[in-house]
Amino acid sequence: MARPIHFDTVRKEYKTASTVHVAVDDLTLSIPEGSFTTLVGPSGCGKTTTLRMIAGLETPSSGRIAFGDEDVTEQSPQERNCAMVFQSIALYPHMTVRENIGYGLKIQGVPKAERDELIDEAAATLQITEQLEKMPAELSGGQQQRVALGSAFVQDPDVLLLDEPMSDLDAKLKAELRVEVQRLHQELDATVVYVTHDQTEAMTMSDQVILLNEGRLEQFAPPGELFDRPVSAYVAEFIGTPSTNLLSATVDESEDGYVLSAPGFDVAVPAEHFADRVGERVTVGIRPQYLSADDGTYGLDITAEVIEQLGTEFVVHGYTDDGSAVDAVSAAFGNVDPGDELDLSFEARDLFVFDDTGQTICHGPDLVRENLSQPS
Question: Which residue of 19, 38, 55, 242 shows the fewest CB atoms closer than 10 Å?
């Protein structure tokens, strides 16, 4: 039976002779019961450590972890009814696929007839029925990972933990297994926590995403909210491909009100967010997908440097007159060559504005007000 997972100021430290390394720093959040939640972030941000604390393989230095109302902070892994699939495919080479999938059930004392029924059901779900009597060495990487998923699936866990299970697979197999894992989640009565450094996996598979930054929680929200309403420049840059463009600007006051002034454009902004910031340097963020070759309200001139084709779309990597790097994505850039001058445009509703610490001041919709002056 799926259970929610609660973190209450959880901290994990690793001590050496000369220093203390904080892997997870006062993490507080609640993962909903039955959800598919992804932990994402760069290497060393604390993803796997957090997952291992859920599993009971690591004990928090301080704080509390609970499954529903049950405090599991000091419980052993065997007491938690968790199943975990590791990054490295851990199969017993001397056992058949059937034996590998059913090994955990055998240790639990499940009768053979019941084991076989559960194994057959799992194999059918994961489309590996024809592989059951083979040895692991006879399988492809994708098939081996399906076996590892099957061995976790048959245990009917309350919590299923997946630690970068696709990191060693090629792009085609990753795409196939993303579908398999999501289908598996629909059939399981379990809370799934998935660790990856691949934001594409995080954004396409998850009900919500936990984005970590050097052991600290940066944002916990559904994928669409991380994309549209990042709480910081870190989130805006990490989520989305290519990364969000970040341009330096100044808050100025004019006869018509307040504006964000940057090389090439002035954007009218509301007093409620900027009246007390006149003269401050801020950062304006805009996603490459929102820079258009069409006639928009605001303009941005760049020089194209590198052009990449991604299917029907093209990514232009360029720079402004002051040397700021700018990326733009559109199907309309097919005829662009390196060195071409591009007149891009955008709308205020598509911007993010960050303060000098990188925290979000406001999002694009907050900039759009009927009483704002039009751009000069």
Answer: 19
- How many CB atoms are closer than 10 A to CB 343? 11
Name all contacts of 12-17 with Cβ < 8 Å and 24+ positions apart: 12/46, 12/49, 12/50, 12/53, 12/58, 12/60, 12/61, 12/215, 13/61
- DSSP letter at 35? -
Degrees (nearest 5) of the Cα angle 271, 276, 279?
105
Check if the beta carbon of residue 234 is closer than 8 Å to that of residue 214: no
Number of helices followed by number of strands (H, E) in the chain = 10, 20
**Sheet containing 70-71: order of strands:** 20-31, 5-15, 62-67, 70-71
Highest mean pLDDT among 18-22, 66-70, 81-85: 66-70
Return the pLDDT at 369: 61
pLDDT in tens, 341-372: 999 999 999 999 999 999 999 999 998 864 45
pLDDT, tens digit, 9 for 90 and up, residues 6-35: 999 999 999 887 899 999 999 999 999 999
> How far apart (Å, rounded) are the C-alpha atoms in residues 266 and 282?
13
At 259, the amino acid letter reads V
**Domains of the chain with bracketed CATH:** 5-230 (3.40.50.300), 238-367 (2.40.50.140)
| CA–CA dist 349, 347 (Å, integer) | 5
Q: Is 313 helix (H, G, I), strand (E, B) or coil?
A: strand
